[in-house]
Write the structure tokens for this entry.
Amino acid sequence: MTRQLILDVDTGTDDAIAIMMAGLSKDLDLLGCTTVWGNHAVPVCTANTLAVLDLIGRQDVPVHQGLGKPFAPIPFLFADHVDSEREIVHPASFPIQPSTREIARQPAVEWLVETLRSATEQITLVPVAPLTNIAAAVTIDPKIVEAVDEVVIMGGSHALGNVTPSAEANIWHDPVAADVVFRAGFERLVLVPLDATHRANVTAAQNEALRGLGTPAGTAAAALIGQRIEGYTQTQPQQMPDVAPVHDALCVAYLLDPSVIPLRAYHVQIETTGFASFGRTIVDTAARSGQTPNALVALDADADLFYKLLNTTLAGPAHIQDPQSPA
């Protein structure tokens, strides 16, 4: 039986690759994508999501546009900050042919609530963006958590940040929403933070191998990862040269093979009021708080297995034209 999932995305480069992996895998049933503000304004994220799905021949997957601002007001957002994706890759350089398809008429939060209320089997939620849509949905109807077997979140950090010294961008964009989600009572909540994603970097040589697959997904992924490698080299140099993390794709890789990230149960608290620590995910690795663990957290990843899953999935059927060619 294939696993049903919903992707909640703010599609820039790594979200795009996560969508490709989920949409191409024979083991996953992608029910829909919901979009939210984050990497870019929500209409840009929505347009990018449609383009990626068209690229892999998944016009059957609906895209529901979601919320365009934080769940709770953040007074200083974004006076002196940009997030890591905006800094790394400009939206105008998205290397995939735009879609001419219309978005779904039902707004994302309404669709999430209705879909989960009516589900006859449990669904996996994979939010790889600010958690605004998910927090709004569970606030409208807290009982929908019972329809979710697992929430797999790309976000947060234990030892490093990327938008501030202590915070990762997805959580920092809307920490109140993240706090709502972590307190919502989901049966199983998996957190895939920067600590794990930075252990699964893709190298320039591996990226050229993706290009060599000759599939639309492989070609597009190589273009996107190439942008990431260039951007990280310029703005966030890694320990090795010519590499970049592909954060969101690691969450989908976990659904394909859970052994790609070791998980340990920890209590995670979201910092919603501090200034220097605003948006931080406080992972209680030493059990100092005395609180019951509320998440399974990945602090490492198997880079070789991640790349194998990425390569194998993107080698799937070539559905339409090369992403660089005219429509």
